[in-house]
Amino acid sequence: MLSAEKIQANWDRYISVIGTCFSKERTDILLPFLDKYKERMMMMPASSKNWHHSAFAGGYTDHVLRVFDCANKLYETWIAMGGDVSTYTVEEMKFAALFHDLGKMGQQEGEYYQPNDSQWHMDKLGQMYKFNTDIPAMKVPERSLFILQEIGCKVTQNEFITIKIHDGLYDESNKFYFMSGQKETRLRTHLPLLMHQADHMAAQIEFELWNNSANPSSKPANATKGDKTLRAAKKIKVENNPKLASATLDVIDSFFKD
Asked: What is the dihedral of CA 40, 45, 48, 49, to 10 degrees?
């Protein structure tokens, strides 16, 4: 969870970065659009499940800024390791980082994430938000690109491909780009790889932050498979499962006897 102050600070930084990173032609389109949907975008999450990443108010902006920061660090790493950064511009990298998940806002006339009204789904599945089924189904990267063209914000070819395939091989339709069988169809730039790495890094960090805050002492840092099995076995109670045969309990107990 983020404080109201942190949500506001993130939004202020987000707008400031956009205002200084891109051309006036772009900011004249982007800034009024973002101001129009300020309340929704400031408060919307980055995912629906609390164990995924940043499924809380303000999570979207927090996530996008983390991806932006990760991308800048990874850009330096690619240079240090001999990567060819002449195939794209820094503006293209920053634009893809800041707008790769724009589709998570939904349509202009309908938000993507809605607070879950099912306590069971929140308690049992960690599903803090539900998807708005009143708007057309569309993959987030494709909706991001749709919104950008809808508001008249032009994107370069590098930006288009990077936003479209930033989920990497988590989306099987991206195999064409990431698993080319011939040199002619290989990616001409590593920018989509950099962005996928930045997004994956940010999401993993956000999961770890959530996991550490949600379970500060629930398990040892170096828990083994045996530890996990033992904890699971201790949770078995006959009163919670009256159909569990005593013979089965004896077998389970035998695994944990000295």
From this structure: -150
Which of 47, 49, 69 is closest to 58 using CA atoms?
47
d(CA 137, CA 98): 22
Closest CA to 167 of 203, 141, 147: 141
**CA dist 81 → 76, 92, 148 (Å):** 9, 20, 33
| Per-residue confidence (pLDDT) for residue 258, from 0 to 100 | 47
**What is the pLDDT averaged over residues 146-174?**
97
Q: Is 199 exposed, middle or buried (0-12, 13-18, 19+ CB in 10 A)?
A: buried
Give how far the C-alpha of residue 46 lies from the chain's centroid of Cα atoms, to the nearest Å.
Answer: 6
Domains and CATH numbers, the chain: 4-214 (1.10.3210), 225-254 (no CATH)
Pairwise CA distance, residues 164 & 196, whole Å = 11
Q: How far is residue 141's CA from residue 71's CA, in Å, rounded to a whole number?
A: 17
Is this prediction's pTM over 0.90?
no
Q: How many residues does the chain have?
A: 258
Read off the pLDDT of residues 217-253 as tens digits, 9 standing for 90 and up: 654 445 555 455 545 554 555 555 555 556 555 655 6
